[in-house]
Amino acid sequence: MTESQPAVQSEAHAPEAHAPDWPARMVDVLFYVGLAGLLLFYLSAALSDAGVNPATVAAALAAAGSLLTVHLRRRRPMVMFTALAITSGLLMLGGELPAWIVLLPPGLFCLSAYDQREWVRRWFVPGVVIALIAWLVAFSEEVLVTVIGSITLLSLIGWANGIRVQRQYRESLLQRIEVVERERDLRAAQAVAAERARIARDIHDLVSHSLAVVAVQAAGAERIADRDPARAKEALGVISGTARDALTEMRGMLEVLRAPEGEKTAAAAPTPGLADLQGLVAGLAARGVPVRLETTGEPYPLAPGAELALYRVVQEALTNAVKHGDQSGAEVTLDYEAEQVVATVGNRVAAPATPGSEIPGSGSGQLGMRERLAIYRGAMTIDHSGEHHRVIVTLPRNEAVWHVKEESP
């Protein structure tokens, strides 16, 4: 089917989306040559039978016009069919030649292959085909001619339908490719946005946690610098250690971001999990922030991402407790239930000693906490009643991941 080529078509017509390739151009040449031969044959016969008369002259002009419309056979096939029908009628008037039985099939072929109007393909083309076959049956003296003519006409229409179906199939493939490309770009943009959000959450957790400790220690050192220089110096040492730890962790995070995908760097630290909560609590206690950790139930591992999410949420909750809590510190409870892990971070909220002395925050901490938990179907509840503030986090137990870990050597 060298006649077919991809095209983007309107409801009424079938304009070409691309220039015809060389097989289609060869078909165009053959179409011109064949149609010109048929028109010359019938014009010669009309002139031989009836001589030069107004009808034969008009038929010659119509034949020339028909040849000029061949280049429109894909975009405006009805124009070419109409020109051929007029030429056939004039030949019949001028020389009583039934030229339509030969001249109309090329027009029907183009209508069936390229015209996108439903009524043309469903009613007009079949109606003309039935009329031509009926004329052959009624007026042809040779049964063999009738049979061959009918089969040829039906085969021509079948070929045209095949070309139209192939072209529509190729157009649907092009549309699918465009849809796939748009979806791919959308997924890539979503992945970039998700990665940016993840990096923003990690940096927020790291910076806000460390700076909260630094701010608390600096405020304490400022208050006692005059009356207790030794303790103020100790607080400055805590500030220095906290800042160095934050820089080290930030450097490791940046090394991971710079490294090629899948490549590990020496500075990349292991992903923290629930087992590291004790170290987090001990670090805060060493910096002068009293925090107590209590674990109930039989501990079981979760998916690495889920453990990291829970660790970061507890870290953020402790950061808020350091910012807004009183000197009594905070309590962390980790309860391993049968179907979920429940983490509770509670503290007492102290009013600021002086206006503006509270530690400011970005306001994105709770949003980041909820986003982390939502990935693993977790939930967070904040209970603030009077001077007591509690953050309650629930994270479902992933049985599939747990069993895989149990069975692995």
Architecture overview:
The chain is 64% helix and 11% strand. It has helices at residues 22-50, 54-68, 77-95, 100-114, 118-139, 143-224, 229-258, 277-286, 304-324, 365-375, 399-407, and strands at residues 291-296, 325-336, 340-349, 379-385, 388-396. A five-stranded mixed sheet has the order 1-2-3-5-4. Strand 1, helix 9 (304-324) and strand 2 form a beta-alpha-beta unit. Helix 9 runs antiparallel to helix 10 (365-375). The two termini are 61 Å apart.
How would you summarize this macromolecular structure in one to three sentences?
The protein has helices at 22-50, 54-68, 77-95, 100-114, 118-139, 143-224, 229-258, 277-286, 304-324, 365-375, 399-407; strands at residues 291-296, 325-336, 340-349, 379-385, 388-396.
What portion of residues is helical? 55-70%
Class per helix and strand makeup:
alpha+beta
- Compute the number of helices: 11
Q: Supply the CATH class of the domain at 276-352 and 362-409.
A: Alpha Beta
Order of helices and strands: HHHHHHHHEHEEHEEH
The largest β sheet comes out as:
5 strands, mixed
Which parts are unreliable, with pLDDT below 50 for 5 consecutive residues or more?
Answer: 1-19, 262-268, 353-362, 399-409
Compute the number of strand runs. 5
What is the general shape? rod-shaped
What spatial order of strands do you see in the largest sheet?
A: 1-2-3-5-4
CATH third-level topology of the domain at 276-352 and 362-409: Heat Shock Protein 90
Taking Cα atoms only, what radius of gyration do you get, to the nearest Å? 42 Å
Overall mean pLDDT score? 75
User: What's the architecture of the domain at 276-352 and 362-409 in CATH terms?
Assistant: 2-Layer Sandwich
| Superfamily (CATH H level) name of the domain at 276-352 and 362-409 | Histidine kinase-like ATPase, C-terminal domain
N-to-C span: 61 Å
**Strand fraction band?**
5-15%
